[in-house]
Specification:
Elements lengths: L1 E13 L2 E3 L5 E5 H7 L6 E6 L5 E9 L6 E4 L11 E11 H6 L3 E3 L11
Parallel strand pairs: 1-8, 2-6, 3-5
Antiparallel strand pairs: 1-7, 3-6, 4-5, 4-7
Amino acid sequence: MQIEVLKSKIHRVKVTEANLDYIGSITIDEDLMDAANIIAGERVYIVDNNNGERFDTYVIKGVRGSGTICLNGAAARKVHRGDIVIIMSYAMMPFDEARNFTPSVVFPDTETNKLVK
């Protein structure tokens, strides 16, 4: 049996930009991507803590160290600059493997979107 489990989570980052006139996606600072074990093109789920919106899109690599969290295309209509979002991805794996799997969870500074050491 295969089940879907949380693989990666960037918990509570601030939206720095919403760009309606761009092909759909989310641009994420590459430092955050690396820390959360997320790759470019990966499907992610976004939860907006300010307005309750929940949606999915794919990741575009942002400038390393920039703190960028930018919703692009239609997703830009679901958030506002300054909103706090949670970014999650999931993976399919055998049930026995999932029992012992530990997701990569990152808790960045919500003002700067930088990794907290």
